[in-house]
Amino acid sequence: MAKSQAQQDFLRNAMHKLGMTRQEFAARIGAQKRALDNWLLPPDSKGFRSMPDTVWVLVREILGAKKRT
Which among 39, 24, 27, 28 has a CA at the least distance from the CA of 65? Predict the structure, then answer.
């Protein structure tokens, strides 16, 4: 899947648009807060983890649904 936006920026932007804290956002996407924290790290950080493609899709769907409401 093409990721046109940096993972960290994508997630921060999504949380901002949804008005959610990290804890709330992690719960909304069904992830542990620790996983979200690792996804939010800079790519050159030791704890960085790439976000699964399914999470990219889920977050885009959530944001799309928010736009329609």
Answer: 28
Taking the model in full, what pTM does it have? 0.87
Sign of CA pseudo-dihedral 64, 42, 22, 58: positive
Q: Where are the alpha helices (DSSP H) in the chain?
A: 7-18, 22-29, 33-39, 53-68
Structure tokens at 66: 């928010």
Largest CA distance in the chain: 39
3 state DSSP class of 25: helix
Domain positions in the chain are: 7-68
pLDDT, tens only, 22-55: 999 999 999 999 999 999 999 999 999 999 999 9
Type of residue at 46? K
C-alpha radius of gyration, the chain, whole number: 12
